[in-house]
Amino acid sequence: MADQDLYYKAHVFVCKNERPENHPRGCCLHRGADELQPYMKERAKAAGLKSIRINQSGCLERCELGPVLVIYPEGVWYTYQTKADIDEIIQTHMVEGGRVDRLMLMPDEKFPEQRQARLAAK
Question: Residue range 13-21: average pLDDT?
Answer without folding.
Answer: 95
